């Protein structure tokens, strides 16, 4: 049943006015009587208003709610109901915050809430274990004054989502990886993960590959030598010649794989970029490599168009840069059909970088394969790649050589045009 509280107030007001008028009618002073009645009514209303104000000020306790009826009853009830809803909402929010805090505290990754000025707003328990940051003690302090790592400071300044790796300030044997996650209002979460186990596994894998490759190289060389001797033996039955040749070809391919694995292992083990290195005569090296490709892989099958800036030389590791040239040239010849035109360029860019590009007009590479081309042993066409004699490591080697020389490798492809561009930074370009 819906109660019309204002009808009660109208009835009360009418009753007061009516009673006051009736009393005033039978007295010789009607005006003072009416004024007195109205002032009394106003005073009663002010008293009720004072009761309501005092109840609101004292915290709206249910047992102290003003006892009244009409509109005052409804107003007090609505205030009380609003307080109950607000308290219930706060209780639920507090439960969610407590649950969220418990979940974040249980995570193995450190999570630190930062404001726009890098002040610590909150930190979970893992932040204390990995970084030595304790929520109760360090809240309000700038994180860059507690963690003195230049890579981490640069990440905070850039405000980017890239990842940085650095040793734990609490234990130098631990390797941590951090990234920033943006929030609304300029706040950010610094997420730090312990990747020591993964780093150790990576080192173990690299050591195993390097050791296994070294151990395989010697017996494989012996086997290849014996197969060459058998192949040259005049007494060798003719029906064994073809299998022996195939075995020697596969042994040679395995030797190439081992050489590439050793080269890749060496590049991966070099954790820092090299010094400027020696002067590398790129034009001469390119002419030699292009001539070798023209006389072997590309002979009578591919057309080579060459544009070389004659005086453009760089600093670096000549052996490694030569592997970039040979791998990119061989890759374009091996993985394109006969009749393909390959355009080779060596030139300087407007920003001072030097660019070595190999571009062909072959069928192209499907877009889904492009991000994976520099992965070890990744093949777009398994059967065709093996038939061409590729090891699946060439582009991985190229990527690591370019990274080691502070450069970049960019790959683009569409039907009728595939390009590989190796960019060397301006600081490595010689005048």
TrEMBL record:
Annotated source species: Thiothrix litoralis
Cross-referenced Gene3D superfamilies: 1.10.287.130, Histidine kinase-like ATPase, C-terminal domain, PAS domain
Domain Histidine kinase: 211-428
Compartments in which it is found: Cell membrane
Protein name: Phosphate regulon sensor protein PhoR
Role played: Member of the two-component regulatory system PhoR/PhoB involved in the phosphate regulon genes expression. PhoR may function as a membrane-associated protein kinase that phosphorylates PhoB in response to environmental signals.
Annotated EC: 2.7.13.3
Keyword Membrane: yes
Reactions listed under catalytic activity: ATP + protein L-histidine = ADP + protein N-phospho-L-histidine
Main location: membrane
MF terms in GO: kinase activity
Keyword vocabulary terms for this entry: ATP-binding, Cell membrane, Kinase, Membrane, Nucleotide-binding, Phosphate transport, Phosphoprotein, Transferase, Transmembrane, Transmembrane helix, Transport, Two-component regulatory system
Transmembrane segments: 15-44
InterPro entries cross-referenced by the UniProt entry: BphY/WalK/GraS-like, HATPase_C_sf, HATPase_dom, His_kinase_dom, HisK_dim/P_dom, HisK_dim/P_sf, PAS, PAS-like_dom_sf
A Pfam family of this chain: PAS_8
């Amino acid at each position: 049943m819906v109660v019309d509280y204002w009808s009660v107030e109208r009835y009360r007001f009418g009753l007061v006015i009516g009673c006051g008028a009736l009393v005033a009618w039978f007295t010789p002073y009607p005006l003072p009587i009416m004024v007195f009645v109205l002032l009394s009514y106003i005073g009663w209303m002010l008293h009720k208003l004072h009761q309501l104000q005092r109840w609101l000020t004292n915290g709206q306790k249910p047992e102290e709610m003003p006892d009244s009826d009409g509109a005052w009853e409804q107003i007090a009830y609505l205030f009380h109901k609003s307080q109950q809803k607000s308290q219930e909402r706060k209780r639920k929010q507090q439960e969610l915050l407590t649950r969220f805090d418990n979940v974040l505290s249980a995570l193995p990754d450190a999570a630190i809430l930062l404001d726009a000025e890098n002040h610590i707003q909150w930190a979970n328990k893992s932040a204390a274990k990995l970084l030595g940051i304790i929520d109760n003690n360090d809240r309000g302090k700038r994180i860059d004054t507690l963690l003195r790592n230049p890579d981490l400071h640069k990440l905070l300044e850039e405000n980017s989502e890239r990842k940085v790796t650095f040793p734990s300030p609490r234990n130098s044997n631990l390797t941590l990886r951090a990234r920033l996650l943006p929030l609304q209002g300029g706040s950010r979460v610094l997420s730090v993960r312990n990747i020591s186990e993964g780093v150790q596994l990576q080192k173990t894998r690299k050591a195993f590959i390097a050791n296994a490759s070294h151990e395989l190289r010697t017996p494989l060389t012996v086997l290849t030598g014996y197969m060459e001797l058998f192949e040259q033996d005049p007494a060798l039955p003719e029906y064994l010649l073809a299998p022996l040749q195939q075995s020697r070809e596969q042994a040679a391919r395995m030797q190439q794989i081992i050489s590439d694995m050793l080269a890749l292992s060496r590049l991966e083990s070099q954790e820092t970029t090299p010094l400027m290195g020696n002067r590398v005569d790129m034009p001469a090296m390119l002419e030699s490599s292009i001539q070798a490709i023209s006389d072997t892989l590309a002979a009578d099958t591919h057309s080579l168009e060459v544009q070389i800036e004659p005086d453009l030389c760089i600093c670096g590791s000549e052996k490694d840069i030569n592997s970039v040239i040979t791998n990119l040239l061989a890759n374009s010849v091996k993985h394109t059909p006969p009749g393909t035109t390959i355009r080779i360029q060596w030139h300087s860019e407007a920003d001072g970088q030097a660019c070595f590009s190999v571009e062909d007009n072959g069928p192209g590479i499907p877009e889904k394969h492009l991000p994976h081309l520099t992965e070890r042993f990744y093949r777009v066409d398994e059967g065709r790649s093996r038939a061409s004699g590729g090891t699946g490591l060439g582009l991985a080697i190229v990527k690591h050589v370019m990274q080691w020389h502070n450069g970049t490798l960019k790959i683009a492809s569409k039907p009728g045009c595939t390009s590989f561009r190796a960019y060397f930074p301006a600081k490595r370009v010689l005048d």
